[in-house]
Every structure is written in C-alpha cells, then in structure tokens.
Design goal:
The complex is a heterodimer. Chain A is mostly beta strands. Chain A has no helices and 11 strands. In chain A, strands 2, 4, 5, 6, 9, 10 and 11 form a 7-stranded mixed β-sheet that branches. In chain A, strands 1-3-8-7 form a 4-stranded antiparallel β-sheet, with no helix packed on it. Chain B is built from no helices and 11 strands. Chain B is globular and about 40 Å long. In chain B, 0% of the residues lie in helices and 57% in strands. In chain B, the strands form 2 sheets. In chain B, strands 2, 4, 5, 9, 10 and 11 form a 6-stranded mixed β-sheet that branches. Classes of the chains: A mainly beta, B mainly beta. Chains A and B meet through strand 5 and strand 10 of A and strand 5 and strand 9 of B.
Chain lengths: 115, 109
C-alpha cells in the first residue's frame, strides 16, 4: 500500500540553527499539506500545495519558515532560525484533491526538539 | 470564527461501548472526518460523513447531523489497542480541514 514518506523521523537542533524536513507524498496525489502539531492539540495547517503552487500559507510564519514543492512532487519545509517554541511534531499529508477524495493520508511525522 | 469542540479525555472499560461527541461551527461544510492517533504517531483515517446519518465500519460507527452541527464516533467491543486520541475534523467551504484538539480515550481492563 502506498504511503507518505517523511524524513527525518526525529530531529534535535539548537535554537538559531537551520532545520529542514522532507516529504514525499503518495504518487499521483496533487495536494500536499504541512501541519504542525503540539502535544494535546489538533494539527495546525502551515501550508497547502496544489501541484507546485501554494494554495494557502496564511498560518506559515514566513519570517522563519519556508516551504517549496518545485516539481509538484516531493516537498521541503525549512525553519531558519529555529526557536524553542518550534518544538512540535511536523506532519505531512497528501490527498488526491479531486471530487469526493478529500481524505488526507499522513506520513509518520518528524518530531522536532529545539534546545 | 471556526470552532470544533470535543471532550478532552474519556475513560472506558475493555469490551464496552463508548461514544465520543464532536460539535462544530464552521464557514461552510464539505464533510466531517474522524481520525485515530496513537501517541507519537500520525493520524490515521477512520471515517468520513458528508450526509446526515450513521456510517458503520466494523466496530466503529460515525453519525452526523448537519442541522445540529454535531457528530459522534461510536466504538464497540473496546480493545486495549483502541487507547488513542480521536480527532474530529471538518472540511470548510474552502476545502480546508478544521481540526478539533482531540479526545484522549483511555481503556481500562
């Protein structure tokens, strides 16, 4: 069964350092999402791509976060510089993005700890 | 504003039945999802309701009333592995998922 791939699974970094996360969605899925989830809360959408275009990045802290999906397939989320408050689980999800296929499929996530 | 409400935590006994409620206020409605999330793992899809009524899938059922802005997830014959957080999410008029904070379900032997 096809899955969303993410790496790394765990990342520990010092504040002010740069960190990057990678996501490879299920083949053929046009829509890709990056979420941040703090323990005990629901996922918070950071950015949504439709193919290579950004559909929604209204909640992305653009002074330090950036995201790209250059060829409309895999995607990278970067934080520079990292802050203590960025410690969270970063989830990538994809969906076919058409018709009734609105279900989002999640990758295993990247657990970020900023020290 | 948009809001999803669900209980923070519930406790139930192995073999019993539990109902997790979710109420929502969103700008538009394009379906309601329930996801299961075990500690430290990613959410996994459980159910999708877009029309009123009950959808049954094995031990899990999900109900929707759009007029009341209300849904519930019903888990039967509870097993220890059902201990997890259950997330309610509504797709709004922009096809964005609005997430609840999740209900942590604790199953006791």
């Amino acid at each position: 069964e096809a899955e969303v791939a993410q790496s790394p699974r765990y990342k520990i970094t010092e504040k002010s350092q740069a960190v990057a996360f990678w996501c490879d969605p299920i083949s053929g899925h046009a829509t890709l999402y990056w979420y941040r989830q703090i323990l005990g809360q629901g996922p918070e959408l950071l950015v949504q791509f439709q193919d290579e275009s950004v559909v929604d990045d209204s909640q992305l802290p653009k002074d330090r976060f950036s995201a790209e999906r250059l060829k409309g397939v895999d995607s990278t989320l970067k934080i520079q510089p990292a802050e203590l408050g960025d410690s969270a689980m970063y989830l990538c999800a994809s969906s076919p993005g058409t018709g009734d296929s609105n279900e989002q499929y999640f990758g295993p996530g990247t657990r970020l700890t900023v020290t | 504003g948009q809001n999803i409400d669900q209980p923070t935590e519930m406790t139930a006994t192995e073999g019993a039945i539990v109902q997790i409620n979710c109420t929502y206020q969103t700008s538009g409605f394009n379906g309601l999802f329930w996801y299961q999330q075990h500690a430290g793992e990613a959410p996994t899809f459980l159910s999708y309701n877009v029309l009123d009524g009950l959808e049954e899938k094995g031990r899990f059922s999900s109900f929707l009333s759009r007029s009341k802005g209300y849904s519930y997830l019903l888990l039967k014959e509870l097993q220890m592995k059902d201990s997890a957080s259950y997330l309610c999410a509504v797709m709004d008029s922009n096809y964005q998922l609005i997430w609840g904070a999740g209900t942590k379900l604790i199953i006791k032997p």
